[in-house]
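User: Please predict the structure of the protein below. I'd like the answer in structure-token form so I can feed it into my own downstream comparison script.

Assistant: Understood. Taking the following sequence of 171 residues as input:
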Amino acid sequence: MLRWCLLLSLLTASVATVTPRALAQTGTSAGVALVTGNGTYPGLPPLPACLASAHAVAATLHDLHFAVVEREDASAGEMDAALSQFTQQVRQAGKPATVIYSCGYGAPFNGRPFLLPVSATVTRPADLLTQAILAKSVLDTVSQGDAGESLAVLDVTPMPNMPAGVDLATV
């Protein structure tokens, strides 16, 4: 509970400073946000705090007049679709303020962090390459020129019982 209260405070303060600048630049009242909360993974302990915090973050962003692309317990395909929809909305809005919030399990492979969709069944480290979402690809959506001021929060819980060869220190 304290974790997402602190997160909401940080998010509200950050967005409150981003939004006035974005309004001055674009003359519009909305930014664009991507919010994912994955908390129900088959075969892994549930993460109910991720679902609660994602709902709270999305509600706060709606209150701040952001267009929010929101997904809960998303498969790899659903996460890809959400990322694509978010990217399209960012491009159409023309340099909007953007917020990305993602909560769920994560794991590193070869020094690169991955976000796990609920459909991932990782039995060996290389499974991350085909079943997970590279965190950098999510962040690249706002760093490649189409977004205005941005805030990204990747609230990642290390995947328990990682297959041998995966170093949790890099998440």
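That's the full token string. Residues 21 and 69 are 22 Å apart (CA to CA).
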